[in-house]
Write a structure and sequence with these properties.
The two termini are about 25 Å apart. Strands 6-5-16-17-18-15-19 form a 7-stranded mixed β-sheet. It has a 6-stranded mixed β-sheet with strand order 9-2-1-13-22-21. The chain has a 3-stranded antiparallel β-sheet with strand order 3-8-4, with helices on one face. It has 15 helices and 24 strands. It is an alpha+beta fold. The protein is globular, with a radius of gyration of 23 Å.
Length: about 525
Amino acid sequence: MKVIIVGGGTAGWVSLAYLAATTDVELTIIHSEEVDALGVGESTTPTIKHVAEVCGIDEVQWMKDAKASFKYGIEFLDFNNIGSRWMHSFDDLLPGQSFHTPITEFGKNIFKKEISSVEYFLTQRRRGISNYDIDWFNNSQGGCEYLLSRHLSPFTKQNESNFSKFPGYSYHINAQEFGNSLRKHTSKNRFTEIKGHVNNVEYDENGVKNIILKDGTKLSADLFIDCTGFKRVLIGNMADFKPYKGLINNAAIWGPVYTQSYRPSTLSIAQPHGWIWETPTWGQIGSGYVFCDDFISTEQAEDHIREHWRKQGLEWNPIKSSKFISGSLDNIAVKNVISNGLGQSFIEPLEATAIMVSCVTIRNASKLINKHKGWSSKSSIILSKVMTDFLDETMEYVLGHYTLTDRKDTEYWRAYDTTNILESMSNMIEKKLKKEWVYHAETNLNGYNWASMLIGYDKPYLGKLPKIEEWQIKNYEFYTKQLVENYRYHYQNNMTVKDRLEYINNQESGNNLS
């Protein structure tokens, strides 16, 4: 089977490296060296760790290449009201069975459709028990808050990782350099690289028949992956872009702040007409302002973010501004063409979904290729359904950050539709709690994620809860307190983020592909 990837941005190289590692297809990538990089620092989810591991790149190597730093989650400041804080961490639910069954990394396969720590926690909140707030929830769930508050890395002073793989930690990266690292460390025997431009596309009843390059070269394949961004060179004539309803942000400005930060979290700070992000990579902080230009101009937004950093004694350096529309293609894949990257979908920068979606797309495509020993129109229908469901749910989760808020201080915050938001959020949590646990590098939003946001915004859960006896509550409280003590003991020997990043960036470069 022959696969051609068109486009050499992050989505293109992620697609190529992952297929090279997981399939036996014949791969060709066509790209121009003229890559228009969108960011100065991107926030990611644990899926990227899975992709790098599958592709065989040593973490130290690619983190150095991508100027990466560690991330345990996103801190949302002032979103519910001015002065509020919610940490969306990568911790996970703990099944009730774990209080009397030893937990192993493989043990989570057993814990399905059981009462979890989320149900215990929501029960106590409904009972009006004091001290059941989001910080207690996060600290009782896992080590993310513990490590974040102390700026500790996931590695011990003996350079051994002691962090759970379910779902794991993530990174702040330079996305273009991450793509370059994948390019550099994928065996040259696994793909053909062509530097050039697609000048014309020929279609037939099976989809794309041929692509013709600027130099006249004509190429055909069984499957094409369109990673050409908003140009949608291959799939543009085969699918329509549909905007999402509810998300009103449509513009962003961004640039670097030249200072070193070792904070292992992304900061998202709500503003009167949008929000500011702070993404610390090695040597600088990427920072931008996401807003709706119905309420504030680009010039006003730029003045606002400059002042934000001036108050911290630092200078923000603008690089780029852009308009965008939140939405996705009505069909992610059509016949023999898959769309991946920004041309496929863009929710908005909140919650670091862009690179995650690219990784999820190619993971699912790889599974289908291996399952069906090839690609067909049926494969495209399946992939489109899976990805559309994934994108719609992720979009709803992002939208919840705006519709759960108590903020009504500006026209911007009053513009969001909050009708029945608690009912719909509670219904989603109830549905999610009936499903099984996440696995290593899983990206599906589970009950913990949804409940965490609801509690982080200090809102009541309106859904059904199982009957939990008093003795079960006492067991839950006892064992979760023991877990917190265990984290303190387990992580006290960890390197600081600063020490770990300095170690990484002092290593000699080399090809660490297995």
